[in-house]
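Take a look at the protein record below and tell me what you see:
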Amino acid sequence: MAWDPFEALRRDLERISRALRPGRLPATLSVRGRTFVAFYTSVKEATGLPGTYIAEIRVVEVGEGFVGGVSLAVTPQKETARVEWASVTPRGIGLGRAIVEAVERDLKARGYYLVELLAVPDSIPFWKALGYIPQAEDVPGEALEMAKMLYMRALPGEMRVLGFIHSPPA
């Protein structure tokens, strides 16, 4: 069998991921028999927002190349993250779900408890299916603020302050 440089890269990235700690990026994801790798490409302080950092995550398909990414605004002092944008292709095979879950595992492993985002109208069902809760009334055709707690950090009385008073529509 011929040597496959992409297979060697995948194995190296898996070893690096395990060495960093379980649940952290880089992560190798298998989706419908295809192999994808998600990894941080940069982290830099946000201009005009002291203590907030922009983290860029790239997603590549092994042997094929770049297929998408995620941009996060993370605030370590508040232990919160905000998804600025997320996009992957192809759609409809479970890759988006796999990437979001990998990013959530990484954030949780780093101590972040809350992820927020502004969902564009056509992505709202996707984010709801992943457990994100609308933080306002869902108005058809309009973007919607959503959030998800990765683990319970706040006391029950603080839940109202965080905006987790809306239950998802049936």
Summary: Residues 159-170 have pLDDT under 50 and may be disordered. The longest strand covers residues 34-45.
